[in-house]
Design goal:
The protein is α/β, with parallel strands linked by helices and 301 residues long. The chain contains 12 helices and 9 strands. Helix 4 crosses helix 5.
């Protein structure tokens, strides 16, 4: 279930005694990041990839919290003073082929790495010379105590050729030690590609750890409590007990003949969808003069 962005309106904020929306600019410190079982594992895996030059893909639906986890990784690096360099190649309107937008090529990645480590470097024109420069930069930086993590956002839009070439970057070493890790941030299309029988991506599929963010199905109450606790409010100040199952029912599609939680049910109970549904329900409850959001209000939102 895809829901259009909905803010909590001012009358609803006043009705429920909120100084501002709990879903806008709601993550300002590491304590604001909710930890489900899957996101907790993802946070550990992200830091391990950064420290030990791993190769992983963080997979999640739109609004699942991938960007928040990446930002939390950056904040932790800052807070702990870790000498880890995050390298982010930027390509506006990145797509898998040039007919739809701009493709991110391995040469662009090499340029991004070189610029991050030495902005004044004059990059050689030949592929061999450029790759040797890159290897030396990373090797010398590692020997100085740094760690490097190449971060590619929207990696499901990578051309297959570039995806294959990532193996070359991972194989850059100083003796037996890798000199850089690779992190792909992607929607499920990347998982589907790597799980396919496409032999072109087998070298990536066999080396890349896929870490997937699960929906909040069983963590919904805890997630909502965490959000409202940041305002010193309890969920039962805003929600009737039956509201939580109603939210789940709106965001989990269970085909006929399939029980909730079984294979075949499809959940969109991710943070962004939860935010938009709750905002709609809070607005509706305030407009109707209901003291709290209940299942009946959620059902019509």
């Amino acid at each position: 279930m895809l829901l259009q962005y909905t803010p909590v309106h001012q009358p609803a904020l006043k009705h429920f005694g909120l100084p501002r929306s709990p879903f806008v600019d709601d993550v300002q410190s590491l304590n604001d990041v909710f930890e489900s079982v899957s996101s907790r594992y993802a946070r550990v895996a992200l830091m391990d990839a950064a420290r030990n030059h791993g190769f992983m893909a963080l997979i999640g639906e739109s609004g699942a919290g991938k960007t928040t986890l990446l930002e939390a990784l950056e904040q932790r690096i800052i807070d702990e003073g870790q000498d880890i360099v995050l390298i982010k190649p930027y390509t506006l309107a990145m797509e898998a082929n040039d007919s739809k937008g701009k493709t991110l090529r391995s040469t662009h990645i090499a340029e991004a790495i070189a610029y991050q480590l030495d902005p004044q470097l004059k990059i050689k024109s030949s592929p061999q010379g450029r790759f040797d420069q890159l290897h030396k930069l990373l090797r010398d930086s590692c020997r100085a105590g740094r760690r490097h993590l190449l971060v590619i956002d929207e990696a499901h839009c990578l051309p297959i050729a570039t995806l294959k070439h990532l193996k070359r970057f991972i194989e850059l070493k100083d003796g037996l030690r890798r000199v850089m890790g690779v992190l792909l941030i992607a929607q499920p299309e990347l998982r589907n590609l790597l799980h396919s029988q496409n032999r072109e991506v087998r070298e990536v599929m066999q080396r890349c750890e896929l870490v997937e963010l699960d929906p909040l199905d069983n963590d919904l109450e805890g997630y909502i409590a965490h959000k409202f606790q940041r305002f010193d409010l309890r969920p039962d100040d805003v929600f009737e007990p039956d509201a939580f199952n109603a939210i789940r029912e709106r965001l989990i599609h269970v085909p006929r003949g399939v029980k909730a939680g079984e294979k075949g049910s499809v959940s969109t109970c991710y943070p962004l969808a939860v935010h938009n549904l709750i905002a709609r329900a809070m607005n509706a409850a305030a407009d109707a003069g209901y003291p709290k959001v209940d299942a009946a209000v959620v059902a019509v939102c």
